[in-house]
Amino acid sequence: MRADTENMAPGRAAAYEALRDVARVPGSPKPDPIVIADRVSRQFGGLKAVDVAHVEIQRGSITALIGPNGAGKTTLFNLLTGFDKPDTGEWTLNKKPIAGKAPYRLARMGMVRTFQLTKALSRMTVMDNMLLGANGQSGERVLNALLPFTWRAQERANAERAVELLSRFNLDAKVGDFAGSLSGGQRKLLEMARALMVGPEIVMLDEPMAGVNPALTQSLLGHIKNIREEGTTVLFVEHDMDMVHDISDWVIVMAQGQIIAEGPPDAVMKDPQVIEAYLGSRHGNALTADGASLTADSQGGTT
Amino acid sequence: MLRRVRLALGVLLLTSVAFLVSGGFSPATAADTTITGTLSTPAGLPVTGVVITAIGPDGVSVSGTSDEKGVFVIPLSAGGSYTVELDITTLPEGITLNNEADASRSLLVLGGEKRIIIGLSEGGESGIVAGSSGTGERVVQLFLDGILYGLVIALGAVGLNLVFGTTGLTNFSHGELLTLGAFTALTFNTAGLNIIIAAPIAIIFAALVYGWGQNRILWRPLRRRKTGLIAAMIVSIGLAIFLRYTLVLFFGGAPQSYKQFAGQPGIALGPFNTTPKALILGALAIIALAATVIWLQRSRIGKATRAVSDNPALASATGIDVERVISVVWIIGAGLAAFAGIYLGLTQNTVWNMGQRILLVLFAAVILGGLGTIYGAIVGAMVVGIFIQMTTLFIPTEMKTVGALFLMILILLVRPQGLLGRKERVG
Amino acid sequence: MDFGQIFTLTITQAFGVTALIYLFAAIGLNIQFGYTGLLNFGQVAFVAAGAYAVGVIVLTLDLSLWLSIIVALMASTVLALLLGIPTLRLRADYLAIVTIAASELLRLLVRSIAFKDVFGGAQGLNGKLGQEFHDLNPLPADFTLPILSWSRQDLWVVIVGWSLALLFTLFVWGLVRSPWGRVVKGIREDEDAVVSLGKNVFVYKLQALVIGGGIAAFGGILWAVAKQSVQPDTFQPDFTFFVFTILLLGGAARVFGPIAGTVIFWFLLAGFGEVLSSLINNGYIDFLTATDVGSIRFMLMGLGLMLLMIFRPQGIFGDRRELALDAR
Ligand SMILES: Nc1ncnc2c1ncn2[C@@H]1O[C@H](COP(=O)(O)OP(=O)(O)OP(=O)(O)O)[C@@H](O)[C@H]1O
Ligand SMILES: [Mg+2]
Hints:
Largest sheet of chain C: 2 strands, antiparallel
Oligomer: heterotrimer
Number of helices of chain C: 15
Largest interface: B-C, 75 and 86 residues
Order of helices and strands of chain C: HHHHHHEHHHHHEHHHH
Structural class of chain C: mainly alpha
Strand content of chain B: 5-15%
Bound molecules: adenosine-5'-triphosphate, magnesium ion
CATH topology of the largest domain in chain B: ABC transporter involved in vitamin B12 uptake, BtuC
Strand order of the largest sheet of chain C: 1-2
CATH architecture of the largest domain in chain B: Orthogonal Bundle
Distance between the termini of chain B: 65 Å
């Protein structure tokens, strides 16, 4: 038993242990869930974009949310983080009900997201982007704004933390540049670093690897693993099965708004139902339950 | 016997040549600073013998009387703020003010402002109705007036909405498309063409020059430069201001009427009083709107238009020539707007800021229906038109636009995406 | 033609009372639009709120001018809240339409007969509005300026007005370099991103609207005090658009943008008007009349706004790169 975890990093090992005995069925209960959602649904016209009966996210793990284009992953992110209002549903963060709460409150409570289409604040410097992430700044109150002595010290501490985070993401040389001058991949990195600046308990990344070159992907994967090692839960959307396989402790599969499968990466990728969902619509029944073909095909869908 | 009379009280042109702020230099001579204007009926007949008084900041009042051409001149001794009052008792028999509030207006004659133009005519759709009629009859009257007004709004709103839908431009110079159409018809009309001939020529001219040409010269290059939507919106504001004052420069600030049908006698259809021209124009407007709707639904380019409105990137990826669609949309939008302008010119008069005055009402209609949805715009226009007319049952006519603007704000509160609009997605 | 006179007249206007009114509105708009990105097309309503506060307090209610300053700020705050709470959640283009509609709605209300007793209807409120202020004028009674053509009274207004304007500019400078300023700039760039970082964007927008509106209201107070007259039809939407022109000219989101923009705008406009008028009066131009000068000035303003937005959206001093980064 110890054998399979002994050369793992402690965070990974803990997640592995915790999830080992979890049932591999949609909506299975986790030993220590940070997020629990029930009956979350959202309809656009006649289309049920999200219809999730029950889902739990294990604390301290890296959970991947996968599914074909239009499966409802981004919509589910929007709902959970309060950026969109569901038709039905309740969900909790650390056992506290958070349905209907304003998105900025959820961010402050420790649930921070990034966006599929990167939202770098172009005409602000990389440093300002980072500092914006820091929470509880007294200088952000309009009354203190004109009294620099009330926020100088805090500002300096935040800047130090920002530089430290940026250097982890290889962005420390860009501190003074406008965010708009960064490359697409660098913006993804900046967005992730900025999200971490908030000091989240769970960070939800919507396709963090999209548009990042393969060389950088490896280091990005390293960063995400590091986030877990520091005790932060990661929930991320990704189309590239190799990456999902590489870093996730648990995989949740969505199709047509519903969760159709859950489990460790290996098991999920062999699940015929998952392959069906991914390829079925395109290739009819002509498929073999082969993880490799799944990987090859889904890379095209990374947008 | 109901007889409708309207007084299109002209525009006051206030001129103060070389008027100084004050101090150091010799003040302008009395003759340089004057308030002048022309009083005329909608038919363009001069209104004579009307006494107009200007009361200056020092309380001194100076009067002028309109001559046989309807022109009055009030010499002023200095600049400052003046109250200009029209003595209603001196109005000729049968002529009343459209709007009581217009009897008294204020003007600011100050350094740096060489000329201030203030439209005195509210130019409302319905004039003062002499004689009495019951509330029931009034409701019917206002309702039908509202439908006619709604049709004008719809003609203007469709183009505004199509352009928004396909290009994302919130066009603040759309009102000027109405004005330009009306003045183009006026130009042809003045040149000797009967308005029945001048109007269709003007509409075609407007569609090609103000629609297709404007898009070609201004908006298409801007799209090529990837000008943002907010920047484009501000460009349209600049264009609107430029066009308005160009019209003032060439046509003057006073309202003008077309040579034909200006003073058409009214007819009564049961309880409903109107003019034959309003009915004919209304019928033509319905035909034009119906044709547009059918075109959008049936024709290939119409369908393409809807596809572009839905998702320009996707439409272009599927092989639709987006720029061609936009050109067509501008042609149709400008043509319908010109029609609306001529409609207003025929039932009221043409004046340089007629489009500006209706622009917010057009926006109200479009917002009511939801930006970018064409049927919404037409429905919204009818609702706004009827609403504006009906509210005069309860509030003074001078405030009828207030009701529509208030309604628009209220709707946005409840449904920020408009009544029929769709919500945008995040992330 | 007397170029000396034309020049002094132009300078007088470039730094004069009317320019100051626009300057206050522009400083306020710079916070709202320049830094926060709010497309407030109803700025004129805040100026009107300031001016009418003075008019109503001093003339209608016969109370002190100093009280009216407090009332003006309260009125503009209430207006900002009334306007902001419903509209600040809207998309930028809807916000633009609603704010312009609200400013027109207010103008129609104050000029209506129904409220004539309070707001004076279409004539507005005219009388000794700024007496208490002018009584404090420290300049000697027989004071005249050697070159510039300000009267003793106007000079007093101009001195106080420019001092206040510089003070507000300093205030804005302090605000925008603080963390508060960082948040509002973030909102301008991408609202959702800022929300995702835990900032209550709505409150910041409201604060920006209130602060910017309050500064604009000072323009209205100055108007009432200097011109001793408040009239509804001077508060047309075009006022707001000229403020936008000024701001874009000097450079939005630049601390000194409004000052530079105002002075240049009025210098060009007044200079052009004076030169053209004098050309016409002296018979050099005979195809135009003196009345055309006003129209041509407005035409140029419109054209200027267009060209500015197309070719130099960053203003004349702005750094192109700052704007070229994204497609605004
Ligand atoms: N605001 C909206 N209005 C209408 N339909 C929407 C809206 N947002 C999402 N949808 C629809 O809901 C479905 C789910 O969309 P969503 O963006 O959640 O998919 P996704 O799983 O994130 O896809 P991808 O992998 O391509 O990012 C899609 O069919 C989409 O068209
Ligand atoms: Mg997605």
